[in-house]
Write a structure and sequence with these properties.
thiol protease; Calpain catalytic domain-containing protein; hydrolase; alpha+beta; calcium; 4 domains; Jelly Rolls; 20 helices
């Protein structure tokens, strides 16, 4: 539906411009300074020109693409967005993936419908979004200022950059970034990053194998050299190192080869080479071993070099030995393509994706150190099987957590510190259930991200024993609000799909949505009803005196209606403090035990309600540890877990939405209403289901139940 809406908007603009014989001017991204920068004005005046006017200066006709698309069409301009250029260069080598970002059929030929509007698509937080722009481009003295092609009449790359800048608010927003983020946005894939300068060399021994697998699966690969501008951020400095590499720069990796060579002692040596490209697209290249004209190439004949594609050109593209690459580069990003990207079906990643939300007081429990709230975080079940190509009897999976970026311009500090932990489910009985607090107190996580980081994404590869696992995405601190996308990549289809176990994913699933304690649990801890009676006895309940009080309050009919309950119940509970109950609250309390639907309570029914009220009061005051007179989401979770009723997270969230105040807290009246709703819902379902796991009813019966609760 979204695609249809975007297509309709694009076609409407084209038809309107052609009918009026005008060129499109984008009102959302005007040709003004607001589209150029948010803090730092360019040091020279900018003129906005259309491609036809630019090309005309050189006596040429403007083209959207000149003889197709190539990574050699991309040259970085005066904006520090080498991370974008490097990602686009990787994309240009994969036609099917490129067409997702650059829809085919776009032209600058007036005879074929050119009217100055172009469309591009980017993957943002789990879905593709279309961005429309006009073709007015920033120039200085008639030349493009930012990304441009080597051809003076080709403009597709400059327009992609403009659309991406519009997505983030302005061109300056693209200055400085992570190549992995751009690869994700251009492919819909997930980028796995390796910090080459933080780990021991032996820990990277498996990475060349990952690279071979990545290229087999149509993955895009980039790399970066930092320049002490902050962890993980690549910024353009233009500082060329003695070895020909550029500090603070992003590069593309587009091939990997292994050569079996013979040394002077006639021993076979396995040499791994990677092909690297500088987005500047010029002669600024690596000049060390295996560079274009290094003596190492003499070990291969020219024919062998041609056959292997090991060709030297002054185009910013060069080969490096793997060991030299690791020694000189700081980051390596592999963007693993989603299944829909095409390629050999046997080599595609199997992907499962889920969205969710951290909501303070409800599903924002923080890292495992927050023992009282960590269990409230969203939980996702996944079952892994060993179907990998290797023989280690382990299942490979890549887990990626991404947080939503709602900013108009980039601010690294706006990101939450996010991460995830993985727990193994030791018994099948736990599969599909939301894990309670006790599970996390008794079980340590078996895998986790390396760090909680304030980046857009946190990704890590694991080799785990086959089995059932629960992934818990979380923020470093508890009670922080944020939305997230969780993705799990496996080499083969997992034996069972990932299942969200809390409302943060936007769905239900798993476990009993609402059920009382089992008989065994009753023997161990008691049901809500029996525990309430025990609590009542401890309060020195005197039935004779209680019956006398009821008779005085209920009137001549010896039945208590909601209005009488509203008048007298606060007096009966005066010892606990002031209690204000609305008439709706009292009607709801009457409905808990009004099994004959008379709208009134007999003495026996009120006696039962009283026992429940005493139990609920005990739960409330135990949960209200700070004696504030109200409880938050975590305290509500705690009280409900002791109430004798198992509630799924979605029901708890519904209760909160209905009964909490504007500060997200429940006072005593709200808590009593919430407990009344739980008990009534369970009783009504039991009556309708007749002991089954489901209930079958008419619309009339369903309507009556909805009004009752």
């Amino acid at each position: 539906w979204a695609d249809e809406m975007a297509d309709s908007k694009y076609r409407s603009i084209v038809e309107s411009c052609l009918r009026q014989r005008i060129l499109y001017e984008d009102p959302e991204f005007p040709a003004t300074n607001a589209s150029l920068f948010f803090s730092q004005r360019p040091p020279y005046p900018i003129s906005w020109m259309r491609p036809h006017d630019i090309a005309k200066q050189y006596g040429q006709e403007a083209l959207f693409a000149d003889d197709g698309y190539s990574r050699f069409d991309l040259n970085q301009g005066e904006l520090g967005d080498c991370w974008v250029v490097a990602a686009l260069a990787s994309l240009a080598d994969h036609e099917e993936a490129l067409q997702r970002v650059v829809p085919p059929g776009q032209t600058m030929d007036p005879r074929q419908g050119y009217c100055g509007v172009f469309r591009f698509r980017f993957f943002r937080f789990g879905r593709w979004v279309e961005v429309l722009v006009d073709d007015r481009l920033p120039t200085r003295q008639g030349e493009l200022v930012y990304i441009h092609s080597a051809s003076q009449r080709e403009f597709w790359s400059a327009l992609v950059e403009k659309a991406y800048a519009k997505l983030f608010g302005c061109y300056e927003s693209l200055s400085g970034g992570l190549i992995g983020d751009a690869l994700d946005d251009f492919t819909g894939g997930m980028s796995e990053s390796f910090n080459l300068n933080r780990v021991k060399p032996e820990s990277l021994r498996g990475v060349p194998r990952y690279l071979f697998q990545a290229f087999d699966r149509n993955s895009l690969v980039g790399a970066g050299i930092l320049d002490n501008k902050g962890p993980g951020t690549v910024t353009l400095t233009g500082r060329i190192l003695p070895n020909g590499l550029v500090a603070g720069h992003a590069y593309t990796i587009n091939d990997i080869r292994q050569l079996r060579l013979t040394d002077q002692s006639n021993r076979n040596i396995l040499t791994t080479l990677v092909r690297v490209r500088n987005p500047w697209g010029d002669k600024v290249e690596w000049n060390g071993p295996w560079s274009d004209r290094s003596p190492e190439w003499s070990q291969l004949g020219s024919g062998a070099r041609q056959a292997l594609g090991l060709v030297a050109r002054d185009d910013g593209e060069f080969w490096m030995r793997w060991e030299d690459f690791v020694a000189n580069f700081d980051t390596l990003d592999m963007c693993h393509a989603p299944p829909e990207a095409g390629g050999d079906s046997a080599k595609r990643w199997a992907v499962q994706a889920m969205t969710g939300v951290w909501k303070p007081g409800q599903t924002a429990g923080g890292r495992p150190a927050y023992r009282d709230t960590h269990w409230m975080n969203p939980q996702f079940h996944v079952r892994l099987v060993d179907s990998d190509d290797d023989d280690d009897n382990l299942a490979t999976c890549i887990i990626g957590l991404q947080q939503r970026d709602n900013r108009g311009v980039r601010r690294q500090s706006d990101y939450l510190q996010i991460g995830f932990v993985v727990y193994h489910l030791p018994t099948p009985q736990l599969v599909g259930r939301q894990l309670p607090r006790d599970f996390f107190n008794r079980n340590a996580f078996v895998a986790a991200c390396d760090y909680f980081i304030n980046s857009r994404a946190n990704v890590k590869r694991f080799n785990l024993q086959p089995g059932n696992y629960v992934i818990v995405p979380c923020t470093f601190d508890a009670h922080q609000h944020g939305e997230f996308l969780l993705r799990v990549y496996t080499e083969r289809e997992a034996a069972a799909p990932a299942v969200p176990l809390t409302p943060a994913s936007g769905g239900g699933g798993g476990g009993e949505p609402l059920s009382p304690m089992t008989p065994k649990e009753r023997r161990r801890g008691g049901s809500a009803e029996s525990s309430a009676l025990e609590a009542l006895k401890r309060l020195a309940y005197d039935e004779a005196r209680f019956r006398q009080v009821f008779a005085q309050q209920s009137g001549s009919d010896m039945a208590l209606d909601p209005w009488e309950l509203q008048q007298h119940l606060p007096q009966m509970l005066a010892s606990i403090g002031r209690l204000e109950l609305s008439i709706d609250a009292c009607k709801q309390l009457v409905g808990v035990t009004d099994v004959d639907s008379s709208g009134k309570l007999s003495f026996a029914q009120f006696n039962y309600l009283w026992s429940l009220l005493v139990w609920w009061l005990k739960l409330f005051f135990e949960a209200d540890g700070d004696r504030s007179g109200s409880i938050d989401g975590a305290e509500l979770h705690s009280a409900l877990s002791k109430s004798g009723y198992r509630l799924h997270g979605s029901q708890i969230m519904s209760l909160r939405r209905r009964y909490e105040d504007r500060n997200g807290r429940l006072d005593l009246s709200g808590f009593l209403r919430a407990m009344a709703a739980v008990v009534s819902a369970f009783r009504l379902f039991q009556n309708a289901s007749r002991g089954q796991a489901y209930a079958k009813m008419t619309m009339e019966e369903f309507f009556a139940i909805c009004l009752t609760v």
